[in-house]
Amino acid sequence: MNKVSRLLSPLESIQNAWGLKLRDFRQWCAPAGQKSIRDWKTRRVEGAIIVAKGSMVDDVEKMLKAVQQNENAEAMGDTTNSGTSVNLPFMVTAISAIESPPEREVVIGSPTWQNVVIPSDPLQRVVQARTASVSYRCQIAFFAPDPHAASSIANQFVNFWKHERKRGIDVFYELGFAGESIIKDKWNFRVVENTLYPDKADVGIETVHAVTVDCIVVGAEPNVVGLGGYDDDITDTGEPDGSIPPNLPPVGGHRDPPEKLNSFVIEADVIEREANRHTRVTADPTTGEINQYDIKDDTP
Question: What pLDDT sits at residue 63?
């Protein structure tokens, strides 16, 4: 049984990718003569970029209140204080899914199952995949002690996404397992440039100046079966037993049954250079059992 039995959801994968992009913006932007922005750029990231619930989009007062109620001193690297004090400036971000898919000319999904091999699967198994075009509304709110710092961040944030190399966002979806290792696959999302909307926000506090910037992020979301995902058994396999009244013919599924999938190699090595780890994954062709063990060698 996999030690890690839960894969990240597509939304969680998007949130991770968006957070990494915000960190990239923080290192990219210039203080522009504002000491407060310099302080924000050099502060520990936990206290500089704060994640809010998706339900807080468009409610900057609720965002600010949520931050004020947290234990912020430790997150900001302050070991001399404790409690709910907040050091300006800071950024808060929230993401919410958009029910309407993006226009077809922007992203094209593929709703039919295709036989594929996921490049990162060390066993190179034949599985099935389909994709849906999706879009997310991403919002940042920047709270600063003066209006100049707030406006500077808003302007630079919009400019950041006009850079062609910055507009792409690499999203790593978790698709299944190979032994105890999680199989991830990289998909590219993009910020739709004409959806960038900077605006001032009033939080009702004279000493706090806030700006918001909205944008739409679009891309494709894969749905893969055959890699041991938790929901493989009820994804387009027909109506499950006991889910319909007696004597009612069940609706059948349209994907390949498990016995037609998972042709695989029986041994493969996984080398994680960043973690300096070398593992070997083996698969029993008869039972399908997958085992993994560490290899101690001098692999650089």
Answer: 86
Between CA 170 and CA 14 the distance in angstroms is 9
120, 184 in Cβ contact below 8 A? yes
Tell me the average pLDDT of the chain: 87
Q: Which helix (H) or strand (E) segment is 132 a member of?
A: strand 127-144
Residue 270: Cβ-neighbour burial (10 angstroms; 0-12, 13-18, 19+)? middle
**Pairing outcome for strands 90-98 and 49-51:** parallel
Give CA–CA dist 279/43, Å, rounded: 37
Quick one: pLDDT at residue 4? 55
User: Helix 35-42 to helix 10-28 angle, to the nearest 10 degrees?
Assistant: 130
Q: What is the Cα–Cα distance from 144 to 90, expressed in whole angstroms?
A: 7
pLDDT tens for each residue of 75-98: 555 555 554 457 899 999 999 999
Amino acid (1-letter code) at residue 21: K
Contact 110, 131 (CB under 8 A): yes
Cβ atoms of 109 and 220 closer than 8 Å = yes
pLDDT in tens, 242-267: 999 988 999 999 999 877 786 666 77
- Residue 122 clears pLDDT 50, i.e. is over it: yes
Q: State both tokens at 22.
A: 């915000």
Could you check whether the bond before residue 89 is cis, i.e. omega within 30 degrees of 0? yes
For residue 114, what is the enclosing H or E element? strand 110-116
Residue reference for tokens 């710092």: 149
